[in-house]
Write a structure and sequence with these properties.
Shape: elongated
Strand content: under 5%
Largest sheet: none
Radius of gyration: 18 Å
Helix content: 55-70%
Length: 208
């Protein structure tokens, strides 16, 4: 792990420092790649995305998870798409490892990234499990900035959507309950009044 003071110094230089980190992230040694990813995450500039993407494919899980965590701090569509691609390709424990890396620090800066992943996914199609996992990740972060995204997930509906629709509603409501606070409470109160029958039933059961 790079020295914290080095990360602070590099992040203070911002975007101009990104290109100078290219040799570090392309180094063959895992600890050099890890250091590069961590510093790029501290800078959190969209210009860092092309440097972080190759690290997602590294066999060393420490490097890949550091790259995911760094991308999670970058509020940019390219960063969200990179993480979404990894989540779609991963399954089981590997996917959970990616999610855990994103929310390990409970950094609210990851909320826009997770919100973009959900917005650009097919919750009732091929991305159902990704969206469910992302909703759970938002709950772990615990920021009420996630509430608008969770409301949209809770309102999803489709004729004959069946179990997938109910699962999304349940996880979205669970996430708002875990986040707590007046913003989440107000959102659930409104959904209890204006939501569809399935959502009202989930809210009644979860808020007992």
């Amino acid at each position: 792990t790079p020295d914290t003071s080095i990360s602070h110094v590099c992040s203070a230089f911002g975007k101009p420092a990104v290109s100078r980190l290219a040799p570090l992230v392309s180094d063959d040694r895992w600890f050099a790649q890890l250091a590069g990813a961590t510093i790029l995450g501290a800078i959190a500039s969209p210009e860092a995305v092309p440097l972080l993407q190759p690290l997602l494919r590294k066999s060393d899980p420490r490097v890949a998870q550091a790259a995911v965590a760094a991308l999670g701090k970058i509020d940019d569509p390219a960063a969200a798409r990179a993480v979404q691609t990894v989540l779609r390709a991963a399954t089981g424990q590997l996917r959970q490892g990616v999610m855990d890396a994103l929310v390990a620090d409970r950094d609210p800066r990851v909320v826009p990234m997770l919100a973009r992943v959900i917005k650009e996914s097919e919750p009732l199609g091929k991305d159902h499990e990704v969206v469910v996992g992302t909703v759970d990740a938002l709950a772990k972060v615990g920021s009420d900035a996630a509430v608008p995204t969770l409301v949209n997930v809770a309102k999803v509906k489709k004729f004959f959507g069946g179990k997938k629709v109910r699962t999304l509603k349940e996880h979205a409501v669970d996430a708002m309950i875990r986040i707590g606070g007046p913003k989440a409470a107000a959102a659930m109160d409104l959904l209890a009044q204006s939501g569809d029958r399935g959502l009202k039933k989930v809210l009644a059961q979860k808020r007992r």
